[in-house]
Each structure stands twice: as C-alpha cells, then as structure tokens.
Amino acid sequence: MFIKSLEVNNFRNYVNQKIEFSRETNIIYGKNAQGKTNLLEAVSLFSSGKSFRRAQDRNLIKDGEPSSKINIEFEINGVGKDAEIIINRESKKYIKLCGAPLHKTSELLGQFKSVIFSPEEMSLITGAPELRRNFTDLVISSEKPVYYNILKRYYKILKQKNNLLKQNNSSKEETLAVWNESLAQAGAKIMVYRKSFIDLINPYVKETFEEITEGKEDIKINYVPSVSAEEFEENTLYDLLLNSMNKKMQAEIMLGASVCGIHRDDYSFFINGKNAKSFSSQGQQRTAIIALKMAQAEIIKENCGEYPVFLLDDVMSELDFERRNYLSEKIKDKQVIITCTDKYESAGAKCFYVENGTVSEE
Ligand SMILES: Nc1ncnc2c1ncn2[C@@H]1O[C@H](COP(=O)(O)OP(=O)(O)O)[C@@H](O)[C@H]1O
Ligand SMILES: [Mg+2]
After folding, report:
1. Which of 101, 127, 176, 183 has its CA 20 to 30 A from that of 248?
2. Ligand 2 centroid vs 126 CA: distance in angstroms?
3. Using one digit for the tens of pLDDT, what is the confidence trace for 171-201?
4. Is 35 in the pocket of ligand 1 (CB under 6 A)?
5. Whole-prediction pTM value?
C-alpha cells in the first residue's frame, strides 16, 4: 500500500498544499505548531474516517472557512485509486472513492490502510476503556465490515434503551426485555469477534515485544468482557448476556443507565504478568504500543497482502536508542511518513520542511 499524493484545501492551518510522497521514507520536519501533525491527521482520515487526535470534524476546517477538501492518490496491490473527503461546517461530510460518492463513512474503512504511531497512543494502555474499545473496533471493522454493521445496530438499540431508562414512566420492563434480547443477540456476535481478534493479535504483539526486550520481558493482552465468559461460543454468550442484563434490570431502571453489555467491555495489557495500567514503566508502555501497532500492521498484511502506510508522529525523539533502532529497522523497506522537529539523516529519504502551513520539498 502506498500513498502517492496528498492535497489539502482549507484544512487546519493549510490553505492549499499538495505533497507527492516517496514510496520509502518521507521525513516532514519543522518547528512546533507549524502543521506537521496536521498532515498525518489528513492522511489517516482516509483510514478511519475520523481524526486520530479525536478532533471533531469541524475543527479540521481552517478557521473562518466554510469547508475543507482533502484528496489522496494511493495504490493497493498495484492498482491506483483516489479518494476525496469534503468536510462542511454546516452539513455532513462527503466522501468519494475513485470518483464514486460513498453513502456512509464506514464504506471508507478498509480501503486505504495506515497505522499511526504517536505519543498520545500511550493512552491506549493508561486511558479509559473507551479508547481501547475504539481502537480494537476500528481495526476489526477495517478488516471485517460486517462487524461494523453489528456494532452499529447494537449502539442504535442501546441508545433507545438508555432513552427509555431515563424516562419517568412506570412500566418499562416488557420493552426492556425485548431490547435486551436484541442487545444480547448482537452483543454475543461482537464478543466472538473481539475474542478472536485478541487471540489473533496476541502472538504478533508478543513476538515484537520479546524482540525489543531481547526476550527479557513478555506481554499479553486480555479481553475483559462485561460478563465473564469461559467459552466464546455465540449461543452461550447470548444466554450469559441476556441473563445478566435481565438480572440487572431493576438496577438499570433505578440508575437510568445500561450497566451491562459489550459497551462496557475492556482489554488489559499484562507485562511480565502484571497489569500494565498500574505497574508498567513509560518505557514498557512505549514498547507495548510499538508492539501493538506493528501487530496491527502484520494483520493488515495478512489480510490484504501489503503493509499499511506507517505514520510516525514525533515518536523517534521519544524513544531510546534501542527502540528507535528496532523501529527504524522494521520499517525501513516500507512506506513511512515521519514527523520530527529536528531533521535527521536517513539515507534516501524524501524530506519536506514545514513552516506556518507551507511545505517545501528538499
Ligand atoms: N482549524 C484550524 N484552523 C487554522 N489553524 C489551525 C486549525 N487547527 C489547528 N491549527 C493550527 O495548526 C498548528 C498546529 O499544527 P500541528 O500540525 O499540530 O503542529 P506540529 O507541526 O507541531 O505538528 C497550530 O498553529 C494551530 O493553531
Ligand atoms: Mg505535531
């Protein structure tokens, strides 16, 4: 997978800028707050439909402008493609793939694949469960669109259920029981996907982690569903979820919120047998994130035959010598776009200097 070019119009601090990338290493350097990360944000929009910085769409539009347009040209398995995203302040966003309009943002998932490495991604280990759910949901959805549809259905029903729970009428039980059935049905499927994703990614994460730590440390990601399950078989999970939701019905009515279900699932990282959220060092967390992202790249490679584009936002300066070397070695024959404040020598790299929303090629 290669990105050939990126063109941004009224995006963040850019008026109009087109960049032609090298198929190998691209280095974007410049002082702070000049627009380096903004470029990676624009590229990764095409992989997830959303800002990796979790910014709202309207904040991506240049201040004072009504809309923003971003285009990329990319190549997958030797086939050239292009995509366009138009973000409007007042209406929904428009997306085109090879000239054809997409009806939903989700149709973009899985088309252009990139993996982002950034210091903020450390929050995947230390932050709220929602961040881990979002990450895994995005990776699974990009590989399996059917998963995204089930997830969407689940959240739609959950919203209705929550609205009902918040209302002040007395007879809710019957309707809740019906919705709990639908939630348990979708939820059981989602749990099967989540469990098999964790089983799939674990060996890759472990391998990279052991390589970086030279076999001295080990890692394991655990799936921690809202209902504890021994066996991840759909019918069993359906029964588990439904029983648990129905048992908690009165509590949910009192609280006015759904306390049980896959929207409460989590994942935990165990390093050397200890929960990394509370017990790991920053260095271990960085290693874990590198391992997780490399694993994501390997899964993409397995599914589509090609590595994704690697986007490295200011990470090199954060890493110590060993980790930097390891990462450089791993990505050297792949397409990477690296941002940094100090230009560094990398043989054959294409360099771009960014100043105040203007990019000059060197
Ligand atoms: N919607 C926007 N409109 C105009 N400028 C913006 C917008 N969003 C961010 N910026 C500007 O972009 C710059 C930050 O860009 P960024 O790519 O994060 O910097 P860095 O080069 O440090 O990675 C800041 O100067 C900020 O004011
Ligand atoms: Mg930055």
Report:
1. 127
2. 21
3. 899 999 999 999 999 999 999 999 999 999 9
4. yes
5. 0.95
